[in-house]
Hints:
The complex is a heterodimer. By secondary structure, chain A is of the alpha/beta class.
Amino acid sequence: MPIFNMDFETMPREALKAIQLSRLKTSLEKVYATVPFYRDSFKKAGITPQDINSLDDMRRIPFTTKQDLRDNYPYGMFAVPMENVVRIHASSGTTGSPTVVGYTKRDIKTWSELMARSLAAGGATSRDILHNAYGYGLFTGGLGVHYGAERLGASVIPVSGGNTKRQIIIMKDFKPTILTGTPSYILHLAEVAEEMGVSFKDLSFKAGIFGAEPWSEAMREEIESKLNLKAIDIYGLSEIMGPGVSIECIQAQNGLHIFEDHFIPEIIDPITEEVLPYGETGELVFTSITKEAFPIIRYRTRDITSLNPEPCICGRTHVRMKKVSGRTDDMLIIRGVNVFPSQIEDVLMKSDNIQPHYQLVVDRSGNLDSLTVKVEVSDQIFSDQIKNLQNMEANISNDIKEYLGVSAKVMLVEPKAIERSQGKAIRVIDNRNI
Amino acid sequence: MRAEQISIFLENKAGRLAEVTAILRDANVNIRALSLADTTDFGILRLIVNDNQKAEDILKKEGFTVGKTNVIAVEVDDNPGGLNRVLDPLTSEGVNVEYMYAFANPNRKSAIMIFRFDNIDKAIEILAKNKIAVIKGEDVYNL
Lengths: 434, 143
C-alpha cells in the first residue's frame, strides 16, 4: 500500500518534533494576536506565546473546552476575517449553541490532504471507486471524505446517508471498491442488502473506512464477515478538523496514526489535568498547529484512549491512538449524531414545560441504534384522554428530531419509574455494549 | 349535575391495575364504575368511586399520577334506542363525546352512562332541554 505523503508520514520522530515546535509557536502567536478568548486565557495563566519554547512547555497553556466554544458562538473563535473563510461546518444541531467551525482555502487543502492520507492508509488508491455513505451537510463526514477522495484521485460516488435500497443498487451497478460511512449505518446497509437478496460477496468492495461513532472490535468482526471487506477505523471531530485526524493502517489495524505534523496529541488525567506518559489511558487533548480559520489549542475531546509511539509495520512514524473506549462526559453518539442528555432536557422543558424527570435508553436493535426517551408523567401534564398524552409524545419526538437531528421514541412512564441512584436520576442507560 | 371522575396513569405492565385496586380496597374506597383506556405503552384508568378525595389522596401518597375530571352521568333506558335518545340531540348540536362507559343501575332496570364531553356546559344544557335525566354526583357515588 503506497503511503500518500512519504516525507511527512514516515519522518523520523526527532525531525517531526522539531516541525511541531516551530509550527506550534507560530500558531500560538497567531491565536494570541487574533482571538480574544486565547489572549485572555493566556493572560489569566500568566503566559505569552514567547514562554513556550519546548513541547514540554505546552502543559503551561490552559485547556480549551466545548463550553468555551459555545460561549464564543458562532464566530468568536475564528482567527481570520470572514472574507478568508470559504467553508463553515457545525456540530450536530443542539438547542443551545452548536459548535461552529470555519476553514480557509488552505485549511480545506490541508483537510483534503489528511483525508487522502487516511484513505490511502485504509487501502484506497486513485484507481478506486469510493461509495461515500457519510451524510453531506453541516456534518463534516460527507464533505470531508469527499474532498479527500478527490485529492487522492479516486472516483467518488457522493451517495450520502439514507435511501438505503437505492444505495444497494448503486453498489451492484457502479461497482465501488471502497466504502465509507458510520459503522452502524454500514451494518444497516448489510441487513437491507440481505433482505434484497444481494450478497456482499458478489460486490466489489475491498475495504471500508468507518468512523464518527464508537464501535467495538466485535462490531469490526461482524462488519468484516458480513460485508466481506477490511474494516478500518477513522477518527476525527469537527472542532479539530473533521474526519482524518487519525487513521488505522490496513497493514496493522492496530491503533490509529495521528497526523502529528498537523496536530499535537496529549493524554491527560481528566480529574487532575496532569499530562500522562505514553501508554497510559486518559483523556485525549489536541492542539492544531497548521489551521488558519479555526486554530484550537489544547482542546479537551472527552474521548478516552492512550498513545503508542512504537514504530508500526506500515512504516508510518506518527503516534498511534487506541480505538476510543469511552468518554469522560455523558455525551452519547447515536447514529453519528452527538447527543447530550442536557439537550433532551432543554427540549422537554421547552416543548411542554415538562419537569425534567427523564431517562435516555439507547439500544442497538438489529444493527441500528435506537433512542427511547422516558418521561415521567406528572400531575401537570397528565390528562384523562389518551389522545392528549399521545399528542404530547409525538410533539416531544418531533422537537427532538428538529433540534437534535436524531429520531427518538418518547415513552411516558409513571412517576418515580426512572431509577434513581442516591437521589440522582440515572439519565442514561446504554444497552449497546460498545 | 356533574360527577367527578378520577383518572390514574398506569404503565402497561402486569399487576399494575391490581395494585391500584388493592390500595383502594385497603383504604375502604368502593369503586362504582371504571374504564381502562390503553395504548401499547400506557393506560389511563378512570374511576367513579364513593369517596373521591380519599381515593385521590391515598393514590397520590402511593406515588401515582392522579387527575380529576368532570363527567356527566346519564340514566339510559334499557331498551333498543335508549342510547340514541341521549346521543342524537347532542350530535345535532355538535357536542362530541370524548369517551364513555356504562354500568348497570342496581336500583332500576336501566344503565348509567358516564360521558366525557368536549363541551360539558353545552351538553348539560342540551340534555336539560330534552328532558334527559342527569344523575347528580353524590347520587352516583352512593348508588
